[in-house]
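Sample entry (205 residues):
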Amino acid sequence: MNDSRLELLLGTHNRGKAGEICHALADLGIHFHTLNDFAQVQTVRESGETFEENALLKAKGYAQQCRLWTLADDSGLEVEALNGAPGVLSARYAGTEASDRDRIDLLLEQLARAPQANRSARFISVVALADSHSRILKVECGVCEGAIIDSPQGNNGFGYDPIFVPRGFQSTFAELPSETKEVISHRGKAVRAMRMFLAQLITRT
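Predicted structure, serialized as tokens:
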């Protein structure tokens, strides 16, 4: 492995997610790929019951197909009043073809009918790293606590960002500067922990 030529596949089609990860790892001399670069890749079925199980499935599955080191993230939103939903189904909450706005609208509709007014929620991200032989090398997790608001605010970010206000802030993820979100977000925390491992690995090799 050469520190200026390490090729790393990000196991996602989500450009927003890939952008956040690339930015967090930008100074490590890594050449990034995403699933959008591989037209023939078969989507790995996210059949796990936890974020970690799905992250492992994706990291191993895409590494096996593409023969590249692969970093895969599985993340989602857990809302207390909805008994932890949408959870691992966050990206598929309103159907596989639904838009971010569709998912937000459905969540707010269900939350409005929930018997309790508790708006507490948290984002969770688990990132898993597999080598080109599909062996898992490292797993990291990040959590961001916060609350759900009544209607979307802000145009930055993606997913449920416009309705999630992180604890200690008055603005949603979609209103905060990307630099602030990277520091406090679930994915930012998980990727920074993984970054330490990657940096050490690159230095050793």
